[in-house]
Amino acid sequence: MDFSKILTDYPYKTELHAHSFPVSSCGDFSAEEVVKVYAEAGVDSLVLTNHLSPHNCDEGVEHYLSDYYKALEAAEGKLNVILGVEMRFTENSNDYLVYGVSPEDIPHFIELIPYGIENFYKEVKNERNVIIQAHPFRKNIVLAPEDSIDGIESFNLHPGHNSRVGIGARYAKLCGKLVTAGTDFHHAGHQALALMRTKEKMKDSYDIASAIKSRDVVFDCSGHIVIPYLY
Fold this sequence. Notes:
Layout: H1 3-9, E1 12-18, H2 31-40, E2 45-48, E3 51-52, H3 61-75, E4 80-83, E5 85-87, E6 96-99, H4 106-112, H5 116-124, E7 130-133, E8 151-156, H6 165-175, E9 178-182, E10 195-198, H7 205-214, E11 218-221, E12 224-226
Parallel strand pairs: 1-2, 2-4, 3-5, 7-8, 8-9
Antiparallel strand pairs: 1-10, 5-6, 6-7, 10-11, 11-12
Helix pairs in contact: 2-3
């Protein structure tokens, strides 16, 4: 197989899963620092997927979006910063990545945190978004109902967690779900470990959702190419 042609055909690199401090208290880098390390890594687009959960939702919409706006300002002329969300509800420790969102969605998302993924999916699912269960095979995570997610993050390469990516990839194939890959960036030296490559540059959150749903993507895991849909 001519992998050089794949790189030529899918030249644009996007990070689908990254966090910044202080909105994600588990992160080590400010929004401006996240932009800097990803620009240096040669990434074209960066989706900032900060946590929105029972632990920080009381901080409010302005606080949640503050890092996104700081990243936007820092990224001007360097790369595209895109809004995503990593949701957690009160029902368990599961996380869900939502793409195809705008700042105007965040107040409603906060309101839905007490009611769980099944209600969230019914309330917010539309033709322009995609809802992905993040790292579903980590310890203390349970699989979401199949009719309440569009896909799974089968390739989560956070070095500090065992996301059991092989099991995730097999599960996605068996159930026919969409799959994504992301670094789950929090800490120094971990940037750009898992990227999505596309034929077109990703400009906004709706482009991200459309690309994921198209299945016309490849994953770049530190230079190792993964073709996710050979079945």
